[in-house]
Amino acid sequence: MSTLSISLPTALMSFVNEQATKRGYATSGEYVCDLIRADRGRVELRDRLLDGAASKATANVDDSYFDGLRSRVRHTG
User: What are the phi and psi torsion angles at 2 (to 5°)?
Assistant: First the structure.
């Protein structure tokens, strides 16, 4: 694991500490790591959505398409 040291203004550090406590994190570092993970997830989702929007259209997606997906999931689980 790597270490990152950052300097925050007093007001921002107070906010981080308050949020970490209110949300049940053991440390402010855990809270910050969770924020970074959430941001990474948003970036990955955005990239996937943009890739999908830029891709060629395939088969129509209608009720029967989703019925087929549900059926496959039920039979593989």
Answer: -100, 165
Q: Does residue 17 sit within a domain?
A: yes
CA count, 13 A, side-chain hemisphere, 36: 7
Specify if 33 maps to a domain: yes
- Stretch 47-75: mean pLDDT, rounded? 91
Give φ, ψ of 16 to 5 degrees: -60, -45
Which two tokens mark 40? 């990474």
Judge whether 62 lies within some domain: no
DSSP 12-67: HHHHHHHHHHHTT-SSHHHHHHHHHHHHHHHHHHHHHHHHHHHSPP-S---HHHHH
Q: Which residue has the tokens 């059926």?
A: 71
Query: What was the pLDDT predicted at 58?
Result: 83
For the cut 70, the answer to whether the pLDDT of residue 77 exceeds it is no
